[in-house]
Amino acid sequence: MGKFISAVLTLIFTIAFNSLLLAHPEGHYKKADLPNLHHWNLNFNHQQVIGNFLMQRNDLIVIEGIEGKMWTIKMNKLDDVDQAYANGEIEKINRLNGFNASEGTSNHSSTYFMYLLIFGGMAITFYGLSVYAARKKMNTNLRLAFSTLSVFAIILFFVSCKKDEPNNGGNGNGNNVITGIPKTTTSFIDSAFTHYKPKISTNWDTTYFYVSSTGIPNHNMMVGISSWQQQVPIPQDYSGTNHWSIPLQPVYATTPLSTRTNFMKGAVAIAVNGIPIFNALNNRGEDSYLIGELDQWGGHCGKGDDYHYHAAPLSLSTISGLKPIAFALDGFAVYGAKEPDGTTMQSLDTCHGHIYNNGVYHYHGTTNYPYVVGAMKGKVVTDPTTPAPENQILPQAFAHPIRPALTPLRNAVITGFTAPTSSSYNLTYQLGNRFGHVNYNWTTNGVYHFEFIDTAGITTTANY
Ligand SMILES: [Zn+2]
Ligand SMILES: [Zn+2]
To answer: Domain check: are 433 and 385 in the same one?
Structure first.
């Protein structure tokens, strides 16, 4: 009888153990396996962990290294490339176990439902047997054994119930499995903006990465503009609640909104130097770059004297290297002329981006239309008060004009722009063979003094 009980116990434990472990890749690595193991980059201390993905528990993943070494690491402590890799491994294992990641936990439930039936059935059977044994006044040991087995089966039944709770909810990375897009790590975004601090500053919460800036780049401006609206750059207050917001969890749009027919108002991306990037088309639908509205860095000033780009700020790659040069307001990174790994840029889709080898979608800045974003790959919220094509993306930072907007100065070409002090600029333009000037400065209280010297040499001044 003892043999019978131990056989039943073994059977129960085998089923229970398998149900809790789930399928996972082969483990137990030796030193010789080292070159074949995955190198995981941790984003918080730049260390590496070498081992293979073993399993996932909520927002934790377990990595198995050589000689049985195990690490339990929070998903968001991995760099973005390894988060994407881990998500790939999780999906593979979910498939192995008959789960379907995109459908959440439906198949997951059916697997556990089977175990619930088995353990529930066992509990009822053993309970019945122990009652039967008691009635027939059978051997005490046998009655005790049936009661014990029914209790075990009941415990396993409840363990299975608990395990069946969906593990997609209630943790930071739950969405990863549902959307297939890993949540962007703040350290990854921040590393792209770092080169431009302290002129800009960054912070974040669980939803957005925020960028505060004065809207003044670290390069010169205005020179090269041949179609000038007479606006000039003045510092902007993109700070406090008027900061730029990059969503941390991009979500693919069902139908990406084209920049040809949308977003003529407001920015579509924020460059890593804190300068907004607007639609390649101006608000009249013309290619800003082709009609000479832009300086040699791809920017100019709007009606609020706010400096912004319409073309890709590719010159930032000199400082940024292979890091992103911008982030679109849907949350996806914008890289320069090369792939993040330094190789030649691969072909782009109509949104002006692609998924490269890390499995995460990104855009590229190029020297041709649409320059930065062809269509918003990610979902964005648009301002309901400004219908398409002027549907600006929200949240959005705003410029605060200090003077009325001016009119274009036909045939003027901007030939010089200097900063005599940290709070003044002198702009020189050429009209025919004569030169005109706009010299301006400002106080810390935000009082602006302008001096306009036209091509006939006549000076006028204005304070704002
Ligand atoms: Zn503009
Ligand atoms: Zn790429």
So the answer is: no
CA distances from 267 to 104, 227, 282 (A): 35, 21, 11
Tokens 């294992």 locate to 93
Sign of CA dihedral 101, 102, 106, 111: negative
Do 304 and 384 share a structural domain?
A: yes
Q: What is the DSSP letter of 346?
A: P
Assess whether 394 and 430 both reside in one domain.
no
**Nearest alpha-carbon partner for 276 in 196, 213, 367:** 213
- 13 CB neighbour count, 10 Å cutoff: 12
359-376, pLDDT tens digit by residue? 899 999 999 999 999 999
Within a domain: residue 101?
A: no
CA distances from 93 to 21, 26, 47, 51, 88 (A): 12, 12, 26, 17, 9
Q: Note the pLDDT of residue 394.
A: 97
Domain-located, residue 14: no
> Which ligand is nearest to the Cα of residue 324, counting in written order?
2
For residue 329, how far is its CA from the centre of ligand 1 (angstroms)? 17
Does position 165 have pLDDT exceeding 60, yes or no? no
What ligand has the least distance to the C-alpha of 358?
Answer: 2
- Between 36-50, 214-228, 296-310, 358-372, the lowest mean confidence (pLDDT) is in 36-50
Residues of the domain holding 456: 424-463
Q: Please tell me the distance between residue 190's alpha carbon and the centre of ligand 1 in angstroms.
A: 26
* Cα 270 to Cα 326: distance, rounded to the nearest angstrom: 5
Nearest ligand (C-alpha, residue 233): 1
Same domain, 436 and 350: no
How many residues are present in the chain? 464
- Whether 194 and 317 map to the same domain: the answer is yes
Is residue 265 domain-shared with residue 400, that is, in the same domain? yes
Confidence of residue 24 (pLDDT cuts 50, 70, 90): very low
Query: Which ligand has the nearest atom to the CA of 346?
Result: 2
What is the model's pLDDT at position 94? 63
The band of 19, judged by pLDDT with boundaries at 50, 70 and 90, is very low
- List of residues 6+ apart from 43 with CB closer than 8 A: 76, 77, 78, 79, 80, 185, 187, 188
